[in-house]
């Protein structure tokens, strides 16, 4: 059984599959080819082979520059950061800058209760007209 990939861009020259589907750095398909042929292409162009999808047959690899790999890692990190974690509830409260004292105290008590329950709280302050 092939080894699981630990991180994006960590493939290098160790490719556990014999036949690969290769995509050029421009995004066009180069078709299915043998591992040795893909490594030769990689060396000729000074690029790296990166595993995109291993759940298909044959697995899909893409030729990328170091800069492209770095940008892809940043995109994936942003996407992961933006998605809410399972089991974490996010609450949102909106304040007006002309809020009355009683309303303000009620909302702050509510926020304190949510924080005690370990909810993520987002507070928005709107400017009154």
From TrEMBL:
Keyword Cell inner membrane appears in the UniProt entry: no
Alphabetized UniProt keyword annotations: Initiation factor, Protein biosynthesis
InterPro entries from the UniProt entry: T_IF-3_C_sf (IPR036788), T_IF-3_N_sf (IPR036787), Translation_initiation_fac_3 (IPR001288), Translation_initiation_fac_3_N (IPR019814)
GO MF term list: ribosome binding; translation initiation factor activity
Translation initiation factor 3 N-terminal domain sequence ranges: 11-78
Signal peptide: none
Gene Ontology CC: mitochondrion
GO terms under biological process: mitochondrial translational initiation; ribosome disassembly
Pfam families reported in the protein's UniProt record: IF3_N
Protein family: Belongs to the IF-3 family.
Protein name from the UniProt record: IF3M factor
Organism the protein comes from: Thryothorus ludovicianus
Gene name as annotated: Mtif3
């Amino acid at each position: 059984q092939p080894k699981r990939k630990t991180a994006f861009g960590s493939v290098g020259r160790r490719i556990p599959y014999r036949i690969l589907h290769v995509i050029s750095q421009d995004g066009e398909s180069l078709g299915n080819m043998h591992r040795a042929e893909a490594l030769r292409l990689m060396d000729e162009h000074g690029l790296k082979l990166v595993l995109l999808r291993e759940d298909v047959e044959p697995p899909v690899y893409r030729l990328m520059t170091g800069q492209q790999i770095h940008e892809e890692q940043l995109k994936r990190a942003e996407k992961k950061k933006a998605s809410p974690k399972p089991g974490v509830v996010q609450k949102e409260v909106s304040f007006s800058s002309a809020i009355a004292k009683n309303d303000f105290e009620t909302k702050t008590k509510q926020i304190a209760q949510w924080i005690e329950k370990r909810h993520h709280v987002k507070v928005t302050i709107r400017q009154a007209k």
